[in-house]
Design goal:
InterPro entries: GalP_uridyl_Trfase_II, GalP_uridyl_Trfase_II_CS, GalP_Utransf_C, GalP_Utransf_N. The chain is α+β, with helices and mostly antiparallel strands. The protein has three domains: about 90 residues, no CATH class; about 25 residues; about 375 residues, HIT family, subunit A, CATH 3.30.428. It contains 18 helices and 16 strands. The strands form four sheets. A nine-stranded antiparallel sheet has the order 3-4-5-7-6-13-14-10-9. Strands 1-2-15 form a three-stranded mixed sheet. A two-stranded antiparallel sheet has the order 8-16. The chain is globular. The structure holds zinc ion. Zinc ion binds next to loops.
């Protein structure tokens, strides 16, 4: 009895104390109303069911330290609920900052809370999977990916408000139209945020950004919050893999397919088998893998993964030359793609036939040297022989056929090209010095955000708003235009300084496009001159492929 009384007293006293604090917050009513709108947004977007609404409401009230919902929360319909969550979220994050819920009102902390809020309005991972499988079975895979992609945007995991900031243009070239983007969707970190991330303790959980352990993870100042991430299990080649969307959306329905285990990238026959298996299950998506060696590979080599999506890249539209056939691989045709890099396109009706031919070609390429073309399969290094040859494979369906592009790569360096012989050369580093990975191989340039301000300044020079001669003389090493100085000289020489600003921007963008095509040429192992074509023909002949009459 005494115990009950004590418990009763505590129960009635404590909420009172909290209630007083909440009531003292002048913004409490406004915060509660934002929460209610967000719940109704999630219900409208089918992220939660009607039965989930009180549950989600109570979770959000707790998160924002409120005792009760807003007035009218029981009304069956609300009229002014937006179709996108960002404005509601921004307002809620402002309230959180004002009421001391955020340690700092920086993008880092706001993004961490944002994902937590949306995570409370999501289906459970197994519910998302069940919905995906039902749609797949009843309406086909495209209906399943459409619905899952919509969830990824609705949940603000894919931040369309940021993605829309990216600059995009098409660059006409002899290889068709290249796609060009300046990536402005990643918010710039303040020096304070960079310092906080640097001071954060090193953590080994989750092991990397791709591991399935990220689902539901709260994040840290140096690791994104992923309460709103959902993944779909897949079976590829008899192994457990996962499918998810990339939050960065470099192209439509940009997906990541990653292995359940945290194991390093390794390109083998199994890789080709997995890629082909994926296109059987997702025939409306292409899929590709970055190469498995540094310099020519992707940014994450520690966790085996592929990138896929629903987008027709420029490379897919590029034609192939004469067809080649191999006596041991009937039904498979190989053509050299008309592309600045060295791309062999294999096509076949039978998956297994294509797999065998691709594996044979890859093995042959791994051991292939052609000194005349500067290609050495391996070199003697301090730790023994170092392998240099690999491929960037891309697989798609064309009608009922299987199509695989094998992009031949070599990562050797020498004194003249310490960053890589088949890598962007130094005179183009002012535009791009990073690895040429899968996405760029396919003809979509992803350029750093800094370029927008820099090219804007160059456009003003070409429009005569500032004197380049004088500016050039006083350029410091730190000046953002310093790396572009030689390029600006050329532009001024070619176009003068009397362009209007819009015209100046056009010529600059055209020039960047030309440089991107040149960069892809640097990454090509067989150059597009007569010697290069002959070297490519030698390779195909030695691999046993004969040109069809
Ligand atoms: Zn991992």
């Amino acid at each position: 009895m005494a115990n009950e009384q004590r418990a009763g007293t505590a129960a009635s006293e404590q909420p009172d104390a909290v209630r007083t604090e909440a009531a003292a917050r002048p913004d409490a009513a406004r915060t509660a109303e934002l929460i209610e709108k967000l719940i109704r947004y999630a219900r409208n977007r089918n992220m939660i069911g009607t039965l989930d609404m009180p549950y989600a409401r109570n979770q959000l009230l707790e998160l924002f330290r409120l005792d009760e919902p807003c007035e009218g929360y029981l009304a069956p319909e609300w009229s002014d609920v937006p179709d996108e969550p960002q404005k509601l979220l921004e307002a809620l994050l402002d309230e959180a900052a004002a009421s001391g819920l955020l340690p700092d009102n920086t993008t880092t902390w706001r993004d961490l809370l944002d994902a937590k809020v949306m995570g409370l309005l999501m289906p459970r991972p197994s519910e998302t999977e069940a919905r995906f499988r039902t749609l797949w079975a009843e309406q086909g895979i495209a209906a399943a990916t459409d619905d899952f992609y919509a969830l990824n945007k609705d949940s603000n995991y894919i931040r369309m408000d940021r993605i829309r900031k990216n600059e995009y243009w098409l660059h006409p070239s002899e290889f068709g139209e290249m796609e060009m983007t300046i990536n402005l969707s990643k918010p710039e970190k303040t020096p304070q945020e960079i310092a906080q991330a640097g001071q954060a303790a090193a953590a080994d959980y989750p092991q990397c950004l791709l591991c399935a352990d990220n689902v539901g993870y709260a994040g840290r100042v140096n690791h994104p919050a992923r309460q709103n991430l959902r993944i779909i299990p897949l079976e590829l080649n008899g192994e457990a893999w996962f499918f998810q969307y990339s939050p960065y959306v470099y192209y439509n329905e940009h997906s990541i397919v990653f292995r359940r285990e945290h194991v390093p990238m390794k390109l083998t026959r199994d890789t080709f088998a997995r890629l082909l298996a994926f296109t059987e299950q997702f025939p409306h998506y292409f899929i590709g893998s970055n190469a498995d060696l540094p310099i020519v590979g992707g940014s994450i080599l520690s966790h085996d993964h592929f990138q896929a999506g629903r987008h027709t890249f420029p490379i897919e539209k590029a034609p192939t030359g004469q067809a080649h056939v191999h006596a041991a691989h009937p039904g498979v045709r190989v053509g050299v793609v008309d592309w600045p890099m060295s791309v062999l396109r294999l096509t076949a009706d039978e998956r297994e036939a294509l797999l065998n031919a691709a594996d044979d070609l890859y093995r042959f390429w791994q051991g292939y040297s052609d000194e005349q073309a500067g290609i050495l399969a391996s070199t003697e290094g301090p730790g023994g022989q170092t392998r240099h040859n690999t491929v960037t494979p891309i697989v798609r369906r064309r009608g009922g056929r299987y199509e695989m592009d094998l992009v031949l790569r070599n990562n050797r360096t020498d004194e003249a090209h310490p960053e890589g012989i088949f890598h962007p050369h130094r005179h183009l580093h002012h535009i791009k010095k990073e690895n040429i990975g899968l996405i760029e191989v396919m003809g979509l340039a992803i350029l750093p955000g800094r370029l927008l301000a820099e090219t804007g300044a160059i456009a003003r020079l070409l429009a005569g708003q500032k004197d380049w001669e004088a500016a050039r003389a006083s350029l410091t090493e730190q000046d953002p235009l310093k790396p572009h100085a030689v390029w600006i000289d050329e532009l001024v020489e070619r176009y003068g300084t009397r362009l209007d600003e819009a015209e100046a921007n056009r010529v600059i963008r055209h020039d960047i496009g030309c440089k991107f095509v040149e960069i892809l040429g640097h990454a090509g192992v067989f150059k597009r001159d007569r010697e290069g074509r002959e070297a490519c023909a030698r390779f195909l002949a030695q691999a046993g492929f004969k040109a069809q009459g």
